[in-house]
Amino acid sequence: YPERGWYHLPRDDASLPVGPCRLVNAGRRAFRFVQVRVTAGRLELDRAEATHRQHPVAADGWCAVADERLNAAWRLCRDTTVACMQRYYEDGVKRDGMLWIGDARVEYLCNAMLFGDTALAARSLRQMAEAQDADGAVLAVALRSGGHQHDHAIDYMPGTTAPGGFLDSWRLANFATDLVAMLRAYHDHSGDLELVAELWPRLRRLGAWLRSLEPAAMQPGRDWITDHQPPNPGWWSVRGALVMQLLAGQDDLAELARRLGDEAEGAAAAAWRRGPGQLLARALWCPRRHLFVNEAGPDAAADWHPNVLAVLAGQADDPADLLRRLAATPGVLDCDAGFMAFWKWSALARAGLVAEALTDARAWYGAMLLNGATTTWDVNRRDSLGIARPPSHAMSHCHGWSAGLAWLLPTAVVGIRPASPGFATVEVRPDLAGLAWAGAVVPTPRGPIEARWWTAGKGLAGEIVLPDGVSGEAVVDGRRTPLDGGRNTVTC
User: Fold this and answer.
1) Contact at 8 Å (CB) between 441 and 62?
2) Strand, helix or coil for residue 327
């Protein structure tokens, strides 16, 4: 990459003495290639060594479907997720190496399907919650609580990590809602209510701060971000997307309050959602186009971002119709950043449009695979036809927020999800979306859950193996089949 002011490729400069010596680089590096440049004299390189570091993972999830491009993309996502699991969830080991909330939420969901690790998630959640200001706001990146891979200033990101600097004080309201959502997902998958109770006083203060915000007065790029699309000025932040994330955040707070028995916080969250939150959402609905718009107003654009997040916030009366209508609307701006692409696929899957989600994911990851990627990029540019292409502005080629297919395939296609916290009970709701077969193994606190499905005539047949003591049901085309610990056979 050319030098871009705030970022350039890591570089170590050294003046070596005459004779044998050993040189150690100045900081932890993530790389595919190393270039050695001699500017004066002659160098004989005897040996180069590298030490691989990652968070230890004890269990491996597995997933495969009848589509080799999706399988190759799943492997990209697996390798990216584990590479970004260091002392906490790093956003990208080749660039920032920081604990950003929006990145960590997606990375945790991928980890839950791949490794079922709770130690790193608990540590990251604590660090993010500890990076809280006196008024209840949490910072977008947890620098002040140790969310930084280096013990010194980063030579290739000058000035960005200084105490009291911009990143050390950046508040992003939508990332704050991601912290609440991640804690809820953590409890769903781990069953660990003790950590929820430990962090709850901070979450209550955060909830009050979120309810005090006035989206109309907030500044794009400063107070929230939506995507990363430099060719489109002003697209850094979409107000309609922010409103939907604020609504979803209060839903998550209300549910966590219910699980902890905190009636006061649950009532406050529900009241905001029914009152000010609904007024904000209604102002974004365009009855003429039957779509949510980016900004309140009759002539505002209607793009993927507010509509995707409206589906995930439960604001769409008919999610499938909404998203199909959006896909058929010319000139709609798509999602480029990895976390927004993931929420798009999640919304499509929730609306029952799993085939459409997989078609989009094939193209998005396909551009990376065709360009030799071995891990996922932070951003993937789409052209006017919606075709994904390698972006000139992507500078992080191992970015965890883009690994969402590791979650999508086992949950939306194979259909494995917790029906109660910690997988005490499970629901398996497959949607093969035209695939001939699909299977997955998901690690859980009670042991691995395995499910395999294949087409059988005009229906599906499957085999599901649950750990002892775990029960649940398989749901196929509305038909429910009880499941018990051990091997279960399902035919629909």
Assistant:
1) yes
2) helix
